[in-house]
């Protein structure tokens, strides 16, 4: 059993949600205009067409038009604009 599988199994057995135990990203999208991202580590690219975020399990690339980071904290951010794509890159 590799380290990732061990962490998943430990989280499952303890009853702790995976996002908490493993720091997995949580994406909450409202329509096509609003995206809330939790558990990210940093912004690696930011234009009005692309927002690329680093997470524990790789990168997330958000594509669209007129994208704007409305606010961000250490572990949560809100992106507004016309969201067209969300890609996970491991």
Give an overview of the whole structure.
This is YabP/YqfC family sporulation protein. It holds the Pfam family YabP. The chain is an alpha+beta fold and 90 residues long. The chain has a domain at 29-89: Immunoglobulin-like. The protein contains two helices and six strands. The chain has helices spanning 3-14, 18-22; strands spanning 26-30, 34-38, 42-46, 50-55, 58-72, 76-89. A six-stranded antiparallel sheet has the order 1-2-6-5-4-3, with no helix packed on it. The longest helix has 12 residues, at 3-14. It is elongated, with a radius of gyration of 14 Å. The mean pLDDT is 87.
Secondary structure layout plus pairing:
Layout: H1 3-14, H2 18-22, E1 26-30, E2 34-38, E3 42-46, E4 50-55, E5 58-72, E6 76-89
Antiparallel strand pairs: 1-2, 2-6, 3-4, 4-5, 5-6
InterPro entries: Spore_YabP/YqfC, YabP_sf
Protein name: YabP/YqfC family sporulation protein
Features:
alpha+beta, Immunoglobulin-like, 6-stranded antiparallel beta sheet, 6 strands, 19% helix, 2 helices, single chain
Mean pLDDT: 87
| Percentage of residues in strands | over 45%
| Assembly classification | single chain
Q: Identify the strand order in the major beta sheet.
A: 1-2-6-5-4-3
- Give the helix tally: 2
Biggest sheet, in brief? 6 strands, antiparallel
Alpha carbon gap, first and last residue: 20 Å
| Corresponding CATH architecture of the domain at 29-89 | Sandwich
CATH class of the domain at 29-89: Mainly Beta
The percentage helix is 10-25%
- Summarize the helix and strand pattern as letters: HHEEEEEE
């Amino acid at each position: 059993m590799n380290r990732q599988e061990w962490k998943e199994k430990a989280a499952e057995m303890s009853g702790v949600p995976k996002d908490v135990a493993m720091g997995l990203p949580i994406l909450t999208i409202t329509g096509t205009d609003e995206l809330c991202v939790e558990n990210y580590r940093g912004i690696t690219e930011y234009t009005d067409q692309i927002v690329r975020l680093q997470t524990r399990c790789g990168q997330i690339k958000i594509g669209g038009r007129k994208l704007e980071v409305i606010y961000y904290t250490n572990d949560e951010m809100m992106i507004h604009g016309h969201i067209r794509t969300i890609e996970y890159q491991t």
